[in-house]
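Q: I have two molecules that I believe assemble together. Could you output C-alpha cells for the complex as a whole instead of separate predictions?
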Amino acid sequence: MSLSIGMRAQIRAMVFVAGEPIPFFWPMRSFIHHNPLHGLEHKSFEEAIAEGKRLFHGAGFLPRTQYQQYFREGKIKGAYLENGVKQFLDQQAPIDDLDLHACLMMLLTDIESPITSNESLVSVPDISAALRDENLSSAEDIDLDVIAERMCQSLYENCPLYDTLDKLFGTGIAEELDELVVKSCLDFFDEGQSVWQMPGREKGFFLAWREVALRNARLLLRGRQIHKTLQMADDPEDIIVYVMESLGIPKDNWMKCFRLELAKLHGWAGFIRWRSSNRQYHKAKKFPGDLVDFLAVRLTLALALVRERGENDVPQNAEQLQQFIRNKPMETYLRRELYDKRVLAKWAQEIAMALHYGQQKKIEKVGLAYMQDKRTRVANMQADLLRRLAKCANAVPRLESMPDVALRQVLELIRRFEKHEGMLWLEAMEATAMYEFVKGAQMEMLPATDKRPFAQALFCIDTRSERLRRHLESVGDYQTFGIAGFFGVPVSFIEMGKGTETHLCPVILTPKNLVMEMSVTDVQDTVVLSALEKALHDLKESVLTPFVTVEAIGLIFGFDMVGKTLAPRSYNRWRSKLNQTKPHTHLLIDKLSREQADSIVRAVQRAVISNAVEFEFEVPPEEIKDDLVRELREAALGNIASSPLLEQQLNNNTEQAQAFIQRLRNAYLVNKSDARMQMERLGRIGFSLDEQVGFVSQALRSIGLTDNFSRFVLVVGHGSQSENNPYESALDCGACGGNKGLFNARIFANMANKPAVRQRLKSQGIAIPDDAWFIPALHNTTTDEVAMHDLDLLPSSHPIYLDRLQNGLISACRLCTQERVPSLEFVSHTPIEHASKRAQRNAMDWSQVRPEWGLSRNVYFVIGRRQLTETTSLDGRAFLHSYDYRVDHKQRLLENIITGPLVVGQWINMEHYFSTVDNENYGSGSKVYHNVAGRFGVMTGNLSDLRTGLPAQTVLADGKPYHEPMRLITVIDAPMKRVQAAIDRVAIVRKLLINGWIRLMVIDPETKQIHVHNKGQWDAFTDMHNAEKIIDEEAV
Amino acid sequence: MQSYIWLLAALFLPLFPLSMVFNSVYQRLSMPLIRFVLIIAWPFPGIWILHEGNTQAPDWLIYWALATALLYAFRAISVKEVTMWSGYLATSAWAMGWILFIVDDGVNELSFHVLSFALPLAVMSLLLGELIHRYESAYAGIVSGVAVAQPRLSGLIIMAMMAAIASPLFPSFFSMLQIITTLVITYPLVTTGLLLVWLIWSWSGIRLLQELLVGPALPVKYRDISRARAVSYGSLIVLLLLSGLYLSGVLL
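A: Yes, here they are, computed for all two components at once.
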C-alpha cells in the first residue's frame, strides 16, 4: 500500500489540525504554567469547557456542594447569585403559578445533586406519574430501536471505536492500548533515564518503533496482528489510512477520530506536539518524532487489539458493530449498562449472568425488569427533588397536578439552568471578589512626595511578592514596585559550568541576546567529595553495578537517608559545607566588538589545533610552537596550501600532513564556515549600549520610576527551594521561563549601574543620581529570605547603610513567614520562631510534598499605582504590576504590560483554575504516586499519561480546593479611554476578554468611575453591585 | 463405606460436581446471618460422616479434590460478586480437606482446616451483609471507592479477606502450611497444585479488593458502620488472629 503525495499531505494536515486543541507540554526542567484549554481559547469560556469535557473528560466547574460551601462562608454573596438567576430567568419563558426565582435559588443553595438526569429511559409522563405516586407505564412500551439507532449515530461522536467495544463487551482495549503506547513513547523519547536506549531512534519515532515492534516479545505473543498491519505499509501516513479503512471509519469522521485519539494521552501528545514544533530542541533534532508518528503507532496497536478481541465474537469494525447494535438492541442496552458501569448495583450480577449465557429470551426478560426498576427509581428520585423545590415556593399541589406539557417546560428549564449553573456560580464568586477588592482599595490619588525613600525595591509581579512588599513597606521607609520578574530583559543565559542555553524570559518571547557567566576566581581543583558523588551516581545508574555494590556502599546512602529524613535542616547545612561552593562570577553583558570576537575565534582554533597535534602525534605541549599552530590554522582555513613545518616534523611525509589538515577541517571544525558560524554566535553575546539603555528605560518607565531614586534600588528576582520535587521549577519565576530570577536581576542591575547607560537615560529624562545603586537580590519564596548579590561591586560610600537595609529585609521576611506558614500547617497562628524554622525545614525536607503554596489562590492582576492597594492586605493573591499612566505618554507601556505579563498571568491563573476544578484530568493528581519519566515529565505510578497541570498538593487541601478557582480579575488603574485603546490594539488580550477567559475592571482615576467588562459590554461597577443588599448580607 | 455415604460426604465437604449444591444454596440466601451459620455448619456433617465411616478413601480422590480446588479457585478469578467469590473460596478450601483426610487420616486436623477457612468467610459474610445493606450488591467495580466512603467497613473487609486467602498469622495460613509440609515429600505434584490454588486465591481476592475499595466513590453517600459494630467485628478478627497464633504451636 502506498499513498499519493497529495493523500499523505492531507493526512498530515488532518493530524495537524486535530492536534490543535492539545495543549503543549514543556519539559518539566523549566515548568511552564499554561492553560490546559489554550487550544480552545478561540471559543467562549463556557463553550471551551464543554468541548474540554468532550475531549479530555474534564469538569470545568467545581461540584455544586463546594460552591454551596463558599456561599455559606460568604465567599459568594447571595445578591450576586440572585442577580445571576434573575438574568437567566429574563431569557426564559415564564411558567404560570410558579415562583421560579425562589425555586432556582433553592436548587442552587439547598439541593446537593442535580435534579435532571441524562437517563434516556425516563420520560416526562414517568416523572408525572411518580409525582402523583402512581405506577409507571410498562417498560415494554419503550422503543429500544430508537435508543439503538441513537447509539449507532453517535458511534464516532465522543469516543474511538474500541472505546465503544469496551463499553459494550468489557474488552479493556483502551487501557491496554494506553499502556502499550506509553511504553513505546517512554522507549523513544527518553532523555537519559534509561541506561539501554532504544535502537534506531535517529530514523524517527514510527520507523524506530516499527523495527522494535516486529521483534518485541510481548507484542509477538499477539504478533500476528501487528505483523499483518505493519506489513501493509512502511510509512506512518499509509498505516493511518490502512487502519482507518480496516476499522471501517467513514473518511468524514477521520479528523474527529484523530482528535479523540490524540486527546486520550494528551500529556504525551502535548509533549510530542511541543517537541516537534520546537526547532531549537536538541533532542527533537536528533530523534525526530511528531503527531503523525504517534498516531500511526497508536492506531497500529489499536487495530491489533481490536482484531485480537474479535476472535471472541466481538465486532471488528464499525459496520459489524452497527449491525450488532441494530440486531440486538436489548443486549446492547444491558451490555452498556454493565460494562459502562451505569447499572444499578442490585442488578449487576443478574445481568452479567444473563449476558454470559447469551439466551435472548432470558436477556429480554431480565432487561425489561431492569428497565422498569431503573425508570421507577430515577423518576421517583427526580420527583422527590422536584417536590423539595416546589415546597419552597408553596407549589407542591400545583406541581403534582401539573399537566405533562407544563412539567416538560419546567424540566427543560431546570435542565438548561443546571447546564449553565457553573457559570452562574463562577460569575457570582468573581463579582464577590471584585467587591472585596474595591472595598479595600484606596481610590484617592495622593499627591507625590519629594522625600527620598531609604530604599526602593523592584519585585516580580508574582503573587508571593505581595506579602513581602507589604511587610517591607511596613517596617521602614521603603518604596516597592512590581515588574515582570525578567525585568523586561529577555535573555538567553549560559550558566558557568553548563553548556546549554536557558531562556530567561516568558515563553512567549524568544531572546536574541546571550549572556554568559564567567568565573573571576582562580581555577579550583575538583573537590574530592564531588568526585565521589559522581562515582556513586555512575554506579547507581549502571545496569549491573547496583547488584554488586549495594552491600558495599549501600550504607553510605543509608547515612544520607537518615540525615535527610530525621534532621533535614542540620544535616543539609552540614552537607552543604562539603560541597564545592560556587566561585564569584561576572556576567558578559556588553557586546563584543568584531575584533574581540575574531580574536576569541582565533584563540579557540589555536587551542584546538594545539590539542589535536598533541593528541594525534603524541607531541609534548612544550614542543608545539606557535609558528606551527599558526601555519596549521592558515592551512586548515585554506589560506595556504600546506604546512611545511608539520611536514618537517613528520619527516617530509606530505600525505600524512595533508590528511591531518583535512581532519582539522572536518573533525576538529577548523574551517571557514564554522568560523563564520562561531562569529555569528559570538555576535549574540551581550547587549549593545543602545539595547541596554532601551531595556532599562522601558522597565523604569513601565513601573513609573523615573525620578526620586533612593540610595539603594533593590532588583529582587525570586526562586524557590525544595528537595526531591520534580515541580520545583513550577515554583520558580514564570516570567523567567520557570527559572530562578537572580540572573535577570543581576543583568538588569549591572546595566542600570553603568555610567554610560545612566548618561543616556539622563538625556531621556530619567535622572538616576550618582549615589543610587542597583543591587540584585534573590527572594527565596520557600523561606522568605532575601539574599543580596554582587555586593563586592558596591561603591565605597554605601556599605555603611547596608546594615540598616539588611535589618529591614530580615524583619520583613520574618513577618512574611509568620503570615504565610499557618496556612501550610492549617492553623490560625504560628509563633514567629517556629514559622521560620518550619519554612527552612520545608525547603530542605525531601519528604515534604508541599514546601510552599506557590501561586495558589491567585485571583487579581493589578496594573496600577501601589497607592491603590498599599492600605489593604491582598493575602498573597494578587499579581501587582506597577504602572503610572501619567508617564505613559505614548500609551505603549500599558500595551506591553497587557501583551506580556498579563497573558502569562492568565496562563498561570487558568492552570490553577483547571487543576483545582478537576485535578485528575487537568491537574496531575497526588505527588505521592509520581515518578519521573524520561527526565522530562512525571507519570502516576509506573505507567500513565504524562501528568500535566499542577499536583493536588499545590491546589487542594485534604481533597478540598485550597485555591479558589476564578478567572483572573484584571484591575487597570488608568483612564477608561486609554485602556480601551490599548485593548483594541492587542488582539490576543481582546480575544481573551471577549471570550471570557479573563475579567477586567477599570478604575478610572480621573472620573473616579469603576467599569467592569461583562460579556462584551462595559457595566458601571455601582450598577452591578447592590451595595446595600451586600452590606445587609454581611451583617447577617 | 457404601458409595452413597461417600456421596453424602462429598456433598457436605464439597467435591465437584456435588459442590454445586452448596454454592447454589449459598448464593440463594440473602440474610447474612443465615449465610454465617451455613458457612460454618455446612462442612461438619461431611467431617462427621468421614469420622464415622472409618474407611480409607481411595488415593485417586486426592486428585479429584485437587481438581475441585483448582476449578473453584479459577472460578473465583472470574467472578466480581464478592458473595459468590466467598462461596467458591469455601468450596476450594474445603475440597483440600479431603487431601488432608486421605494423607493424614486425622479428623481433628480436618476440623481445624475446615474451620480455619469457614470462620473468616463467615465473618466476611456478615461484613458483606453490611455492604449489601448499603449498596444493594457487593459487585466489585460497580460498587467502588468503598475505602473512601466507609473506611471502617473497608478495613474490616480487608482483614477478613486476608484471613480467608490464608495470609500469614491467620489460622488458614497455618492450616495450608500443615497440608503442604505433610504432602511435599510424598506428593510433590499435588503440593505444586495446592500452591497454585493458594496463589490464585490471593490473586482473585486482591483483585476484588482493588475494584471494590479503590476507585471513585459512588455519588450516593452511605454511612459507615458504627464504632460499636466495628469493634465487634474487629474482635472476631482479632480472635481469629490469636487462634492462628495458637494453631501455629499446635499444628506445626
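A: One point stands out. The radius of gyration of chain B is 18 Å.
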